[in-house]
């Protein structure tokens, strides 16, 4: 296997890390779901992007960022923290405020061929594209973060998609089993009963967690995010960060399958569940292809 990525810790919440390549053109940021994990949720993106690069070469030009957050609190502050992470991670330079890979200490990484791969302290070329990938609750956090970016802007600023954080407004959204239409309470509790706690205690723990409560179908938080996003979709149809493409497993019993008004509707994936939908394998390539489709759609040179 010809490795092209190397892991590195980066500034951000505990557990957040990245996989860097030598000449990146795309930044892909992964946000896990409720009680998820920045490593386990996305297993095995980390290995297959290199192992299958002959078929999916675009991944060799992409830096991967795996964001971590605690599964507690409310959506608004979690989205604010995610925006802060994006703001601190990606430097902006130039007249058009293009966004760049984060500075790295010079590092060397030995490839199986014996060649040493090094990453400079500062990349000279900006990224061409940002893709935000969310699983379950991660998708809700991303959607609220997008709204927070857009709310202070004028219509002209939104339409032109320029400014300090324009790269976020121009991002592509790819969601795996998003919880943006609400979670099925019984399904989620049932999925967690393998833990060494009784059902009533687990329910008590969950219903004392503001994040879990916010994810229930019909919650004011979800309804407000949906309403505001759909209004902006109508008003600004060319803003890519307002429209998501979502992929659900046909056997999902955790969240309600559904989209927002201008989102792209995809067929459900046979035999896939809420947790398996985002885990590529040598027998299940769809997650890799799903994100790459987004890259190819916007960056013709890749």
What does this structure look like?
This protein is of the alpha/beta class and 302 residues long. The chain has a single domain (6-298), classed as Rossmann fold (3-Layer(aba) Sandwich). Helix content is 32%, strand content 16%. The protein contains 10 helices and 11 strands. The protein has helices at 45-51, 75-89, 137-150, 155-160, 166-169, 185-191, 199-207, 210-214, 220-235, 286-298; strands spanning 6-9, 17-20, 26-31, 62-67, 92-93, 98-99, 107-110, 116-119, 129-135, 172-176, 244-247. The strands form 3 sheets. Strands 1-2-4-3-9-10-11 form a 7-stranded mixed sheet, sandwiched between helices. It has a two-stranded antiparallel sheet with strand order 5-6. Strands 7-8 form a two-stranded antiparallel ribbon. Helix 1 (45-51) links the parallel strand 3 (26-31) and strand 4 (62-67). The longest helix is centred in the last third of the chain and has 16 residues, at 220-235. The chain starts with 5 loop residues before the first strand and ends with a helix. The model is unreliable at 196-202 (pLDDT under 50).
């Amino acid at each position: 296997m010809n490795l092209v990525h190397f892991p590195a810790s980066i500034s951000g919440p505990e557990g957040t890390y990245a996989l860097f390549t030598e000449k990146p053109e795309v930044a892909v940021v992964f946000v896990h779901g409720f009680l998820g994990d920045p490593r386990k949720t996305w297993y095995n993106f980390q290995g297959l992007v290199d192992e299958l690069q002959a078929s999916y070469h675009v991944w060799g030009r992409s830096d991967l960022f795996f964001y971590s957050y605690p599964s507690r609190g409310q959506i608004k502050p979690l989205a604010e923290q995610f925006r802060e992470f994006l703001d601190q991670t990606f430097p902006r330079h130039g007249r058009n405020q293009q966004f760049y890979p984060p500075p790295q200490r010079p590092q060397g990484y030995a490839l199986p061929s014996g060649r040493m791969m090094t990453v400079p302290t500062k990349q000279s070329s900006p990224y061409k594209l940002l893709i935000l990938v969310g699983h379950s609750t991660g998708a809700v956090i991303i959607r609220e973060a997008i709204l927070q970016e857009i709310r202070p802007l004028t219509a002209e600023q939104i339409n032109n998609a320029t400014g300090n954080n324009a790269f976020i407004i121009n991002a592509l959204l790819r969601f795996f089993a998003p919880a943006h239409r609400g979670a099925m309470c019984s399904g989620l509790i049932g999925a967690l009963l393998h833990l060494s706690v009784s059902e009533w205690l687990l329910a008590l723990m969950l219903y004392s967690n503001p994040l879990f409560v916010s994810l229930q179908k019909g919650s004011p938080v979800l309804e407000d995010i949906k309403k505001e996003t759909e209004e902006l979709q109508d008003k600004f149809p060319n803003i890519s960060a307002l429209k998501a493409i979502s992929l659900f497993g046909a056997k999902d019993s955790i969240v309600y399958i559904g989209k927002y008004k201008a989102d792209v509707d995809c067929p459900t994936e046979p035999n896939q569940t809420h947790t398996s939908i985002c885990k590529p394998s040598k027998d299940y390539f769809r997650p890799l292809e799903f994100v790459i489709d987004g890259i190819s759609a916007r960056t013709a040179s890749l």
